[in-house]
Amino acid sequence: EKRVHEILSSVEDRDDTRLGVEAMDLLDAYGIETPQGDIVDAPADALEVAERIDGDVVMKIVSPDILHKSDIGGVKVGVPNEEVYDAYEDLVTRARNYQPDANIIGVQVQEMVDLDSGVETIVGMNKDPQFGPLLMFGLGGIFVEVLEDTTFRVAPVAESEARAMTEEIDSAPLLRGARGRDPVDVEGVTETIQRLSQLVTDFPAILELDINPLVATPDGVKAVDVRLTVD
Ligand code: ADP
Ligand code: MG
């Protein structure tokens, strides 16, 4: 709780009410697992983080002015250590080209999650003027707007409601292992919905929050990306 307060109040010190992956600690504080990694502000530090991580890494621009990172080429997947320097410079250049006065916090270097065995889901919350905090669960990733396979509940939700959300989307069979694939960790997804429900109930200053994607694999779930708005 203390860490959550710190992160949320650090937002009050700046003009922006929008946060991106620099808010991943919020999720950690509520027991929502995130990939290994860190945010750095120099290429040499990026390499240091990458060398601590097994295998190739993902690198993302971190800026409150760029919350849809892929749209500007701000996400690089599968970067080997020898390309980390160039990737860092390229991400910053792309951000500058997109918006010369963008506030660039740095670059996030992140462990790769296994999308082949996993399903990209979205877990979110939006404050509805009539119903209050509305939790959303659905199929995630970059096609979420296209597919619109989502379901909603008013927070806080009981475990049974959270589980029902994972069962009622059209893509539910994907989670349960369609076409000979192993089922993903649906319990982990259910728990994540509940933990997010708790977070937004504890902190009414959060107006909206999206974990997109929450990657669910047979071995567990990981929140790969987050953005939120506070009032
Ligand atoms: P944004 O939503 O701002 O474009 P994301 O962090 O969600 O940025 O990344 C976009 C996409 O890149 C994800 O939906 C996912 O397909 C892929 N991706 C991001 N991070 C990882 C990761 N750690 N491992 C594997 N794929 C990733
Ligand atoms: Mg995303």
Provide structural commentary:
The chain is α+β, with helices and mostly antiparallel strands. The protein folds into 2 domains: 36-112, Dna Ligase, domain 1; 119-230, ATP-grasp fold, B domain (D-amino Acid Aminotransferase, Chain A, domain 1), CATH 3.30.470. It is built from 8 helices and 11 strands. The chain has helices spanning 2-12, 24-29, 43-52, 84-98, 144-147, 159-168, 172-175, 186-202, and strands spanning 18-19, 37-40, 57-62, 75-79, 106-111, 119-128, 132-139, 150-154, 206-217, 220-223, 226-230. Strands 1, 6, 7, 8, 9, 10 and 11 form a 7-stranded antiparallel beta sheet that branches. Helix 3 crosses helix 4 (84-98) and helix 6 crosses helix 8. The longest helix has 17 residues, at 186-202. The chain is globular. The mean pLDDT is 93. The chain binds adenosine-5'-diphosphate (ADP) and magnesium ion (MG).
